[in-house]
Amino acid sequence: MVISLILFLFTSFARGETDTSFTFRVELSKAKVFQGEMVTANFILESPHERAVEIEVMKFPEFRGFWSENLVLRQGPVHLMPVQDPKRKRAMALVGSYLLNSMMGIRTPKLEPMKILVKAFGEKPVTLTSEGTFPPPMDLPQIPNHLKPFPFSGAVGLFSLKINQTQISFRKNQPFLLRAELQGDGNFSEVNSLPLGHLGEMTLISTNSFSETLPGRSKKVFEWVLSTDKETLTEWSPGSFLTFHPEKKEYQLITFPAIRFVELPETSLPQNILRMSAILFFPEAKWTTRFSLNKSFWFWFFQAGIFLLLFSRIWVVQFRFYQERAKKDPHVRRKQALKKASSALKSQNWEEFLSMASNLARELLQDKNCSGFGDSLSVLIEADNHFRFSPSKRLTVSPDLLKTHWERIRKALEKTEA
Q1: Which residues, 6+ apart, have CB-to-CB distance to 289 below 8 Å?
Q2: Statement: residue 219 has pLDDT above 60
Q3: Mind listing the domains of the chain with CATH numbers?
Q4: What tens digit of pLDDT does each residue of 275-290 get?
């Protein structure tokens, strides 16, 4: 009994120490980060001594970006190794990390938490979260005062700018193309546009950009379609912008060369920019309202015609379907026969009347619920046989008697149909 109590107290003490022995925190890979640089947020598991544990990630940190590029995780068996630092005598292991962009200039970025389950041999599993742990603030050097007027969009790397044409031919009220290439090695994904600055007497119609990867280098091509209503244009330079060189740890200013404009004479052909670019120079939004209204009218006119054609076709098919089904329905066929027999009696077409009336009387006698119509059937069949095989085609029974027997049969048949 005493031994069991001692083992219980020892196990409880060991578990209590295990629950508080692990530390799960977040730290940044750099203490000094320039705006636009990438910094790594590392999730670190620490313990007072070296040990082997098993880690299971219970909650993944949320982030902006692609999973395969931004996030790194470690799960399963992990060995906590001692840190070679006399100030921190603890064992640690890297559980996960993901990339952050310091473009926004925030000294302490908001880090989404990660939750893990730590299992050690012979110990109770421990659930840890990085929520509530904050790394030390980063040192973010400011952009120098003489460079602050120029825009910085996060272009980090070594870049160079190339202009295909520094002399552009143009014609009044005709579009012309300006193309620039940004080459080098850097994060082209952060460079989505280049500043044009003040356009002066020109008007921007549309823009386009696309990336190309070449052996050993990359480039991004920017295109602008411009137009002017002036006959002459003065020399013009687009706006400059900033890039950051990570090796030199300094911001660099990239400027456009001056561009000269040469007016084309009226007899010469305009610049064939449609062959040079895929930009829509005359988008649909620029078309006249009258053309749009006409286009809309004819569109709905044809739509209505197609609808009426389909509706009429469906109606005809359904009508034929109901007709075929009515022909096969015995109740419908009997109603039609009653109507034809009554019409033949009214017009004194005795041959058709006697034939149809005798057949309907036979159908009535076949019904188990109807009886007492044998005399009517005998009168109709006898009159039908005499009229059909008589050379003179005369009735042997008075029409009033035939009408009386027919009314009995007709009412009985209509009663069975009700």
Answers
A1: none
A2: yes
A3: 20-129 (no CATH), 145-286 (2.60.40), 330-417 (no CATH)
A4: 444 444 444 444 445 5
